[in-house]
Design a protein that fits this description.
alpha/beta, Rossmann fold
Protein backbone atom coordinates (compact mmCIF):
# COMPACT_ATOMS: atom_id res chain seq x y z
CA UNK A 1 0.00 0.00 0.00
CA UNK A 2 1.13 3.54 -0.69
CA UNK A 3 1.08 6.36 1.85
CA UNK A 4 -1.97 7.75 0.06
CA UNK A 5 -3.78 4.43 0.50
CA UNK A 6 -3.29 4.67 4.28
CA UNK A 7 -4.28 8.33 4.62
CA UNK A 8 -7.34 7.63 6.76
CA UNK A 9 -5.20 5.84 9.32
CA UNK A 10 -2.60 8.61 9.24
CA UNK A 11 -5.32 11.21 9.88
CA UNK A 12 -7.15 9.26 12.58
CA UNK A 13 -6.82 11.08 15.93
CA UNK A 14 -7.46 7.84 17.85
CA UNK A 15 -4.56 6.00 16.18
CA UNK A 16 -0.82 6.14 16.74
CA UNK A 17 1.64 5.72 13.90
CA UNK A 18 4.11 2.89 14.14
CA UNK A 19 6.86 5.46 14.69
CA UNK A 20 4.99 7.10 17.56
CA UNK A 21 4.28 3.71 19.11
CA UNK A 22 7.96 2.80 18.94
CA UNK A 23 8.86 6.12 20.53
CA UNK A 24 6.39 5.68 23.39
CA UNK A 25 7.64 2.17 24.08
CA UNK A 26 11.31 3.07 23.94
CA UNK A 27 13.02 1.62 26.98
CA UNK A 28 10.41 -1.10 27.45
CA UNK A 29 11.94 -4.02 29.35
CA UNK A 30 9.86 -6.71 27.64
CA UNK A 31 11.56 -9.11 25.27
CA UNK A 32 8.92 -11.84 24.84
CA UNK A 33 5.27 -11.06 24.15
CA UNK A 34 2.52 -13.67 24.30
CA UNK A 35 -1.19 -13.32 23.55
CA UNK A 36 -3.68 -16.02 24.49
CA UNK A 37 -7.42 -16.34 24.37
CA UNK A 38 -10.21 -16.35 21.80
CA UNK A 39 -10.77 -14.54 18.50
CA UNK A 40 -10.05 -11.18 20.13
CA UNK A 41 -6.59 -12.50 20.94
CA UNK A 42 -6.30 -14.04 17.49
CA UNK A 43 -6.91 -10.61 15.97
CA UNK A 44 -9.90 -11.30 13.71
CA UNK A 45 -11.51 -8.38 11.92
CA UNK A 46 -12.59 -7.14 8.51
CA UNK A 47 -10.37 -4.76 6.52
CA UNK A 48 -10.94 -1.01 6.77
CA UNK A 49 -10.27 1.14 3.70
CA UNK A 50 -7.34 3.44 4.35
CA UNK A 51 -5.90 1.36 7.21
CA UNK A 52 -3.02 -1.10 7.12
CA UNK A 53 -4.40 -4.64 7.37
CA UNK A 54 -2.54 -5.33 10.62
CA UNK A 55 -4.52 -6.58 13.66
CA UNK A 56 -3.82 -5.19 17.09
CA UNK A 57 -1.53 -8.02 18.37
CA UNK A 58 0.83 -7.62 15.43
CA UNK A 59 0.83 -3.83 15.87
CA UNK A 60 1.91 -4.22 19.49
CA UNK A 61 4.49 -6.87 18.63
CA UNK A 62 5.98 -4.70 15.88
CA UNK A 63 6.24 -1.66 18.16
CA UNK A 64 7.71 -3.55 21.11
CA UNK A 65 10.08 -5.55 18.93
CA UNK A 66 11.47 -2.61 16.98
CA UNK A 67 15.25 -2.55 17.35
CA UNK A 68 15.28 -5.79 19.35
CA UNK A 69 16.70 -8.60 17.14
CA UNK A 70 15.98 -11.26 19.74
CA UNK A 71 12.41 -10.22 20.44
CA UNK A 72 9.94 -13.12 20.62
CA UNK A 73 6.20 -13.19 19.93
CA UNK A 74 3.65 -15.98 20.40
CA UNK A 75 -0.09 -15.84 19.73
CA UNK A 76 -2.16 -18.89 20.69
CA UNK A 77 -5.57 -17.26 20.27
CA UNK A 78 -8.26 -19.47 18.72
CA UNK A 79 -11.73 -18.40 17.63
CA UNK A 80 -14.61 -19.70 19.73
CA UNK A 81 -12.65 -20.73 22.81
CA UNK A 82 -14.22 -20.35 26.22
CA UNK A 83 -12.14 -19.23 29.17
CA UNK A 84 -11.85 -22.76 30.58
CA UNK A 85 -10.57 -23.98 27.21
CA UNK A 86 -8.04 -21.17 27.01
CA UNK A 87 -6.75 -22.23 30.42
CA UNK A 88 -6.68 -25.93 29.54
CA UNK A 89 -5.36 -25.71 25.99
CA UNK A 90 -3.18 -22.59 25.76
CA UNK A 91 -1.72 -21.73 29.15
CA UNK A 92 0.90 -24.49 29.23
CA UNK A 93 2.20 -23.54 25.78
CA UNK A 94 2.42 -19.89 26.77
CA UNK A 95 4.22 -20.70 30.01
CA UNK A 96 6.72 -22.83 28.08
CA UNK A 97 7.43 -19.80 25.88
CA UNK A 98 8.40 -17.93 29.08
CA UNK A 99 7.01 -14.53 28.10
CA UNK A 100 7.66 -11.42 30.14
CA UNK A 101 4.55 -9.64 28.84
CA UNK A 102 1.20 -11.33 28.20
CA UNK A 103 -2.25 -10.33 27.07
CA UNK A 104 -5.21 -12.47 28.12
CA UNK A 105 -8.33 -11.94 26.00
CA UNK A 106 -11.07 -14.37 26.99
CA UNK A 107 -14.58 -14.51 28.38
CA UNK A 108 -16.71 -13.32 25.48
CA UNK A 109 -17.67 -16.77 24.24
CA UNK A 110 -18.87 -17.75 27.70
CA UNK A 111 -21.58 -15.11 27.38
CA UNK A 112 -23.44 -17.11 24.73
CA UNK A 113 -24.63 -19.60 27.38
CA UNK A 114 -28.23 -19.18 28.49
CA UNK A 115 -26.90 -18.56 32.02
CA UNK A 116 -23.23 -17.56 31.81
CA UNK A 117 -21.03 -18.84 34.63
CA UNK A 118 -19.19 -15.61 35.37
CA UNK A 119 -17.85 -17.00 38.64
CA UNK A 120 -16.22 -19.76 36.60
CA UNK A 121 -14.86 -17.26 34.09
CA UNK A 122 -13.32 -15.20 36.88
CA UNK A 123 -11.85 -18.31 38.51
CA UNK A 124 -10.24 -19.41 35.24
CA UNK A 125 -8.89 -15.93 34.55
CA UNK A 126 -7.56 -15.78 38.10
CA UNK A 127 -5.71 -19.09 37.62
CA UNK A 128 -4.26 -17.96 34.26
CA UNK A 129 -3.04 -14.67 35.70
CA UNK A 130 -1.61 -16.35 38.80
CA UNK A 131 0.40 -18.85 36.73
CA UNK A 132 1.78 -16.10 34.51
CA UNK A 133 2.64 -13.84 37.42
CA UNK A 134 4.36 -16.75 39.20
CA UNK A 135 6.80 -16.84 36.28
CA UNK A 136 7.34 -13.10 36.60
CA UNK A 137 5.38 -12.00 33.54
CA UNK A 138 3.62 -8.66 33.33
CA UNK A 139 0.03 -8.84 32.09
CA UNK A 140 -2.21 -6.42 30.24
CA UNK A 141 -5.90 -6.78 29.56
CA UNK A 142 -8.67 -4.69 28.05
CA UNK A 143 -12.36 -4.34 28.69
CA UNK A 144 -14.79 -4.85 25.81
CA UNK A 145 -16.23 -1.71 24.21
CA UNK A 146 -19.85 -0.65 24.67
CA UNK A 147 -20.95 -0.87 21.05
CA UNK A 148 -24.59 -1.36 21.89
CA UNK A 149 -25.69 2.19 21.06
CA UNK A 150 -24.49 1.79 17.47
CA UNK A 151 -25.26 -1.93 17.16
CA UNK A 152 -28.67 -2.21 18.88
CA UNK A 153 -29.20 -5.76 17.69
CA UNK A 154 -26.51 -6.80 20.18
CA UNK A 155 -28.17 -4.94 23.07
CA UNK A 156 -29.24 -8.25 24.62
CA UNK A 157 -25.58 -8.78 25.53
CA UNK A 158 -25.04 -5.35 27.08
CA UNK A 159 -25.60 -6.32 30.71
CA UNK A 160 -23.63 -9.52 30.29
CA UNK A 161 -20.70 -7.68 28.73
CA UNK A 162 -20.72 -5.08 31.46
CA UNK A 163 -20.67 -7.87 34.05
CA UNK A 164 -17.78 -9.60 32.25
CA UNK A 165 -15.86 -6.33 32.22
CA UNK A 166 -16.33 -6.09 35.99
CA UNK A 167 -14.76 -9.54 36.37
CA UNK A 168 -11.87 -8.60 34.09
CA UNK A 169 -11.26 -5.44 36.14
CA UNK A 170 -11.30 -7.40 39.38
CA UNK A 171 -8.80 -10.00 38.20
CA UNK A 172 -6.52 -7.37 36.69
CA UNK A 173 -6.58 -5.40 39.94
CA UNK A 174 -5.74 -8.45 42.06
CA UNK A 175 -2.73 -9.32 39.93
CA UNK A 176 -1.42 -5.82 39.24
CA UNK A 177 -2.12 -6.05 35.51
CA UNK A 178 -2.22 -3.09 33.14
CA UNK A 179 -5.88 -2.51 32.31
CA UNK A 180 -6.96 -0.74 29.13
CA UNK A 181 -10.49 0.65 29.49
CA UNK A 182 -12.39 0.41 26.21
CA UNK A 183 -16.00 0.35 27.48
CA UNK A 184 -16.61 4.07 26.90
CA UNK A 185 -13.82 4.70 24.40
CA UNK A 186 -14.99 7.09 21.64
CA UNK A 187 -14.18 4.56 18.91
CA UNK A 188 -17.29 2.67 20.01
CA UNK A 189 -19.52 5.25 18.29
CA UNK A 190 -17.97 4.94 14.85
CA UNK A 191 -20.32 3.54 12.21
CA UNK A 192 -17.57 1.42 10.60
CA UNK A 193 -16.30 -0.11 13.83
CA UNK A 194 -17.80 -3.58 13.57
CA UNK A 195 -17.01 -6.36 11.11
CA UNK A 196 -19.76 -8.00 9.08
CA UNK A 197 -20.15 -10.69 11.74
CA UNK A 198 -21.25 -8.02 14.25
CA UNK A 199 -18.81 -9.34 16.85
CA UNK A 200 -15.29 -8.26 15.98
CA UNK A 201 -13.76 -4.84 15.42
CA UNK A 202 -12.76 -3.92 11.92
CA UNK A 203 -9.10 -3.03 11.48
CA UNK A 204 -10.04 0.59 12.21
CA UNK A 205 -11.00 -0.56 15.70
CA UNK A 206 -7.88 -2.69 16.00
CA UNK A 207 -5.74 0.37 15.28
CA UNK A 208 -7.50 2.40 17.99
CA UNK A 209 -7.19 -0.45 20.49
CA UNK A 210 -3.50 -0.83 19.72
CA UNK A 211 -2.99 2.88 20.38
CA UNK A 212 -4.59 2.60 23.82
CA UNK A 213 -2.48 -0.44 24.65
CA UNK A 214 0.71 1.38 23.66
CA UNK A 215 -0.21 4.40 25.78
CA UNK A 216 -1.02 2.21 28.79
CA UNK A 217 2.20 0.22 28.48
CA UNK A 218 4.13 3.48 28.10
CA UNK A 219 2.65 4.69 31.38
CA UNK A 220 3.77 1.47 33.09
CA UNK A 221 7.30 1.97 31.72
CA UNK A 222 7.42 5.55 32.98
CA UNK A 223 6.01 4.59 36.39
CA UNK A 224 8.76 2.03 36.83
CA UNK A 225 11.37 4.54 35.76
CA UNK A 226 10.02 7.05 38.25
CA UNK A 227 9.33 9.67 35.60
Amino acid sequence: MTTHDLQREADDPLVLSHEDSVRLLRGAPWQRLAVLGDSFAQGLGDPSPGYAQVPWPERISAALGSGKPGFGYLNTGVMGKRTSEVRAEQLEQVLAFRPDLVNVAAGGNDLFDSEPDLDGVESDLDAIYAALRAQGADIFAFTVANVFDTVPELAVFSDRMAALNDRIRAVARRHGAVLIEMWEHPVRLRPNLMSADGIHFTIEGHAALAAEIVKALSTRINDRAGT
